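Protocol step 4 of 6: structure prediction from sequence.
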Amino acid sequence: MNNENLFNQGMEYFNEGKNSKALEIFSNLANSGHVEAQNHLAFMYEEGKGVDVDYLMAEKYYLKSAEGGNSAAQFNLSLMYLNGLGVEKDIKKAHKWLEAAAKQGVPQAQLNLAILIIKTENRLNMGMGSLRYAYTWACTALEQGFEPAKSIVEMMRHMEAGHDHTEWRKIVGVPEVKN
């Protein structure tokens, strides 16, 4: 059986709840460099499917898969870093992997990248164009039909028109600047 057929068999086992069989297949494929299997193996470690929850193993396999170009792993890894899920919270790593997934067309990554930029523009040292960059990603997500991006795009348009930023900052969770 070739690797793709084996991977599909692993997915069938996983979807049927036969996690130990799926784990065996994904482990073998992941260790041979199969990026989709690496992503699914990481998910199994993250969620405790057929194994004990192990965030370090989840990070390890998400990273291998993300480095191999798997957009789902890039997004999943970004969420681990963004939320500090079993790893140290790291905004710069979260940004790196969100941007990688966003560039591959993942609308959830595009919107999350926009929000991350808005919330952390000063800490990311992105300069004056950062809000424009965030707006571009939010629009890209919306253009793909990702409806949650609509409110961010509308609020950024409102802000761009010179309106009060207070309401917009509250919606995206940006702390108020006090003088």
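Step 5 (inspection) to follow. The radius of gyration is 19 Å.
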